[in-house]
Specification:
about 140 residues; mainly alpha; two-stranded antiparallel ribbon; 6 helices; about 45% helix
Length: about 140
């Protein structure tokens, strides 16, 4: 027998005058399980998923943690683990960072790569020299 079937038997036995304790002992069910009430499903999940997707599209460098903080600031009482579960289920991810290349005009330092003249072949070493440009 499953737990819901045992629960229904306990409620039936109570209507017939048997105590809950004895009815639970008959079907080998703990009284806490007999008293358990199933919570109704969350019907705000579709709206929450839609809101998470809009946050992810608007701020593509924000992850689920920052989306959770945004939702909390908007007044929604949501658990960070629930946000993470929905984030993964929807296949959202943080866009990788672009590599930053510094041009000569923006930085006073110029990086210059040179080959060492003494080595050749597969064992070529590289060195870098940093020197100020324009001062």
């Amino acid at each position: 027998m499953t737990a819901p079937q045992k629960r229904s038997f306990v409620s039936f036995a109570k209507t017939r005058g048997l105590s809950q304790r004895k009815a639970c002992r008959l079907v080998k069910l703990s009284r806490s399980v007999a008293r358990y009430r199933v919570r109704p499903g969350k019907d705000d999940e579709a709206q929450l998923v839609e809101r998470i997707q809009t946050i992810a599209k608007k701020n593509c460098r924000r992850g689920y943690r920052l989306a959770h903080h945004q939702l909390r600031r908007e007044g929604l009482k949501v658990n960070h683990k629930r946000i993470h579960r929905l984030w993964r289920r929807e296949g959202l991810s943080v866009r990788p960072r672009r590599s930053r290349s510094v041009s000569e005009g923006k930085s006073p330092w110029k990086r210059r790569w040179r080959r060492l003249p003494t080595r050749s072949g597969a064992s070529i070493s590289w060195r870098t020299e940093l020197w100020m440009v324009g001062s």
